[in-house]
Here is the input.
Amino acid sequence: MLQGFCPTIRNGQIPYVPGGINVNGLKNYLKPLTILSPGAEKNGDKNMKIKKGMRALSLLLIVALVGVMFVPAVSAEQSDDQQFSQGQVIDPEGMELTRTSQSKISDTSASGVLKSSYDWIAGTNIYREFPDPVKSKFYSESRLSGTTTPYNVYKVGVRGRAWREGIFKFDKTDENYYSADAAVNYECSDTYVGGHWLAQSDHTFEYPANNDYYYPTTTDDMDL
Here is the structure.
């Protein structure tokens, strides 16, 4: 004979189960399925019952379906770590601008180098070296043209900001006078770092003695 978790079916109609799916409430309905043909109660037709094993199977299927609902959220949070290998650097390049200017001053700089021409370098880089956190560099540099020699100017500065999925994560400024460098760095401490990242630098270069002022903006982004 066949048994199941459905209530008695009369004349092809299945009664409504109140309260929706409720595992505890299902116990009241996990009784043998009785299929009665029209007039069966009067005629004494034999009931057809589903095997008892169907009762346990039906309950297990419902519990399994409820459990599956929680799996996608956990998998999504782990996906950013699963697609990268150890030591892999994501978006290593970044954005950098270099502007070269000719000095109008004939004396020597603080470093003792004859002033001729100088480079102002503005850059932003956001990246991740798996499994390290997301990191970003924001920098403004003044250099003797074509070298790594610092070229001091009146003011050099940078404001660095970062967003993840449009959510503001970081904002810091560094400004220095009679210097050649300004820089700030960001390191994300979040457990989950997946999504779209955007980093932006607002740079300041001021050299009044040479009547030279430069305020560029650089950006960099990446997807994890």
About this structure: The helical segments are 40-43, 53-68, 71-82. Residues 89-223 form a domain with the Immunoglobulin-like fold (CATH 2.60.40.10). The CA atoms of residues 3 and 50 lie 3 Å apart. The mean pLDDT is 75.
